[in-house]
From TrEMBL:
An annotated Gene Ontology molecular function: carboxylic ester hydrolase activity
One Gene Ontology biological process: proteolysis
Transmembrane segments: 320-341, 353-377, 389-413, 425-444
Protein keywords: Membrane, Signal, Transmembrane, Transmembrane helix
One Pfam family it belongs to: Peptidase_S9
Lineage top rank: taxon: Bacteria
Native source species: Actinoplanes utahensis
Name of the protein: Peptidase S9 prolyl oligopeptidase catalytic domain-containing protein
Signal peptide: 1-19
Ranges of residues in domain Peptidase S9 prolyl oligopeptidase catalytic: 111-269
Classification lineage: Bacteria, Bacillati, Actinomycetota, Actinomycetes, Micromonosporales
Length: 445
């Protein structure tokens, strides 16, 4: 991981406060703020506070760290308002776009941004700096322990849906979970959990794929409230809760609590689909437990819990040599180039079919798998006989391509045409297609 450069922080003057009118109660004040993150990047956020004055007793505070992607501060605004109504000064901010994308992530850089936001909160006269901490959701829970290890300014950590395995393992596990929920069986789940993930890593489009959060949790000394929804379908919750609790115990942290929340999903929201949806609504009493824990973070102040059995996260090894982007690109270009030659082999219509079926199958497969990657395997299209219809069509095309390859090969061996170079290239492309299709699961039921 690239270590981010910590720079001096400058907090700009806040914009005028305005009452939160989304609930019609006016019980929360939202103040727009800018602050300087790592590398001098200006970050934009909102500080939410109760409408009632703090009085002589200053308030606790949290900085909220969102999950993967950059949805903007509005995504966590319902949680932020809930915490503000519980008397907690809360900062939500837009994640940086300079130096962060789904293809280019650096958790250390995000940790420095979080610490910049925390310093801004601690400088406020209504905040008790000894009760200021971080709240991290999913990817934000990768970032939170890094920040806690870098600064004693972090007085506590609250996490939601933290992951205890590597991002690659968690992603592969979630692919399997969502595909099973969609009724998908056969080769596609294995393709998504294996070769697709490894190829993305080899191509350099899955940054931080091998990040191991356990060593960072072993060094956390601050109080920790680690929370998972009982219906979390994303974070490998059973294994993650055991790994993180074990890491804290090995590190000697006796001030940690694991909380399992019944009836809620990955982000502790209400669910109408057994945890596989992301409804915006918060459950009743959201923030009650967290507010009490911040007031008294001693172990035992929050009921703990545990998960039952769940499928283990698959081990993701290094990409094989034939899964490297260079080899993959060369093989695909050679295959497609040979297939589009479209040679005329007298008396053999299969040659024309092979020249069409090969490129269509290759392009269709890559496009469909890219679509699954973009939707985290949550949008498969219609499913028939335990397979997405698109995948069934691609498998049928792959079988037809193999059949055409066999027909071309048989014809060339039997008739031995005088001009054999172009038909030979066509046959070579068809033969190269067969192991490629096996590798990607197209010829596996």
């Amino acid at each position: 991981m690239v270590t981010a450069v910590l720079v001096a922080l400058a907090v700009t003057a806040p914009a005028p406060a305005h009452a939160d009118t989304t609930t019609g109660t006016g019980d929360v004040i939202a103040t727009a703020v800018d602050f300087t993150g790592a590398g001098g990047v200006t970050l934009h956020g909102t500080v939410l506070t109760p409408a009632t004055p703090a009085g002589p007793a200053r308030r606790p505070a949290i900085v909220m760290l969102e999950g993967a992607g950059n949805r903007g501060r509005d995504y966590l605004m319902p949680e932020a308002r809930a915490y503000a109504r519980h008397g907690i000064t809360t900062l939500v901010y837009d994640k940086r776009t300079d130096g962060y994308s789904m293809l280019d992530r650096d958790y250390g850089l995000l940790a420095d941004d979080a610490l910049a936001g925390l310093r801004m909160l601690r400088s406020r006269p209504d905040v008790d700096p000894e009760r200021a901490g971080l709240w991290g959701l999913s990817e934000g829970a990768f970032v939170a322990p890094i920040a806690a290890n870098r600064s004693d300014d972090v007085k506590f950590l609250i996490t939601v849906g933290a992951v205890g395995v590597t991002p690659a393992e968690q992603t592969a596990w979630a692919y399997g979970t969502y595909l099973r929920h969609a009724g998908v069986g056969g080769s596609l789940p294995d393709t998504m959990r294996g070769v697709t993930v490894r190829t993305a890593i080899g191509a350099g489009i899955f940054s931080e794929s091998g990040f191991d959060p356990v060593p960072h949790w072993e060094r956390v000394r601050q109080p920790v409230l680690a929370q998972w929804g009982r219906l979390d379908r994303d974070a490998v919750p059973g294994e993650s809760s055991r790994l993180i609790r074990g890491a804290l115990e090995r590190g000697g942290n006796t001030r940690h609590t694991v909380r399992i929340v019944d009836g809620v999903n990955h982000n502790l929201h209400r669910t109408a689909d057994d945890g596989f949806d992301r409804l915006p609504g918060l459950p009743a009493g959201y923030g009650d437990v967290e507010a009490r824990w911040i007031a008294d973070p001693a172990p035992g102040t929050v009921p703990a819990g545990d998960f039952g059995a769940e499928p283990a996260a698959p081990a993701i090894g290094d990409p094989a040599w034939y899964e490297s982007p260079v080899i993959l690109l060369v093989a695909l270009l050679a295959m497609v180039a040979a297939l589009i030659i479209r040679p005329r082999v007298r008396g053999l219509r299969a040659a024309r079919w092979l020249a069409v079926l090969g490129p269509v199958t290759v392009a269709g497969t890559l496009l469909y798998l890219l679509a699954l990657l973009a939707t985290a395997a949550k949008v498969t299209g219609p499913v028939l006989l335990g397979r997405p219809v698109v995948w069934l069509v691609l498998q049928a095309l792959a079988c037809a391509t193999v059949a055409a390859t066999v027909a071309v090969g048989y014809h060339l061996l039997r008739h031995r045409p005088a001009q054999r170079i172009r038909p030979g290239l066509l046959l070579a492309a068809g033969l190269l297609f067969i192991p490629w299709a096996v590798q990607w699961g197209l010829l596996i039921p």
